[in-house]
Write a structure and sequence with these properties.
The chain has 239 residues and is mostly helical. The protein is 71% helix and 0% strand. It contains 11 helices and no strands. The model has no long low-confidence stretch (mean pLDDT 96).
């Protein structure tokens, strides 16, 4: 590929999101449109918990490699957002409030015993990607947050409208993300625009975002196959 100016690179990144972000996935559309039953929503929340719980570990692997205090301070906020600053706070704790509200046993959720194999493989692949690839690629992979406010708004409004077993309290995880995600994506996008200076680096950035979109898409593929099509693998959550 030829070298892109920063605006062109950003345009390419946003195009990837428009084409590949998981708000376009059929399972998300079913979730948003009220076409899932309570058990299927439970399966989604249970499997998504693993993603939420591993995000701080993913960010910690990158934090350890960042070369400046300024970058480490910025990235540390992400860990605090998810792990909280004391027990019972942060995004992971709020996700457990969601699974509690859906009637799932908390010990069972935290045990990870009911995960779909594809959930575990996909999330672990993302953690390993951020650990093993360049700092630039690792930061670029977080740019799905550019598109998350749209999916959060759809998800919350749709679930509140269609499901009588959820409430604003149950969905409390999502409210802080409406401000955290844009803050984080603004930083990551500025970093990528500034530091992807060669065609090879820009290709790496674009492929990193494509990879992350594929991780999120694959997780929904697995949920759709198991809990909509009815092919639940051995050992996975059975409603």
């Amino acid at each position: 590929m030829t070298l892109l100016i920063p605006d062109q690179l950003e345009e390419r990144l946003r195009q990837i999101g428009a084409e590949r972000y998981h708000n376009r996935h059929p399972f998300h559309r079913k979730l948003h449109d009220g076409k899932l039953d309570r058990a299927q929503v439970q399966a989604w929340a249970l499997n998504r918990y693993y993603y939420q719980a591993r995000i701080p570990a993913k960010d910690a692997t990158l934090l350890a490699r960042l070369p400046t205090a300024e970058l480490r301070r910025e990235w540390r906020r992400r860990i605090e957002d998810h792990d909280g600053t004391e027990p019972g706070t942060g995004g992971v704790a709020r996700w457990l409030m969601l699974t509690d509200g859906l009637g799932l046993d908390r010990d069972y959720v935290e045990s990870l015993d009911g995960l779909l194999p594809a959930t575990r493989f996909s999330v672990d692949a993302y953690v390993n990607f951020v650990r093993d690839r360049s700092i630039l690629a690792a930061i670029a992979s977080s740019l799905t947050e550019l598109f998350s406010p749209t999916i959060i708004s759809e998800r919350v409004s749709g679930m509140l409208r269609h499901y009588d077993f959820v409430s604003e309290k149950t969905l409390a995880y999502f409210t802080p993300r409406l401000t955290q995600a844009p803050r984080d994506s603004d930083f990551a996008l500025a970093y990528v625009r500034e530091n992807a200076r060669t065609p090879e680096q820009q290709k790496e950035v674009l492929e990193a975002l494509e990879f992350k979109c594929s991780v999120l898409w694959t997780m929904l593929d697995a949920l759709d196959y198991a809990y909509v099509d009815g092919h639940i693998p051995p050992g996975a959550f059975v409603p």
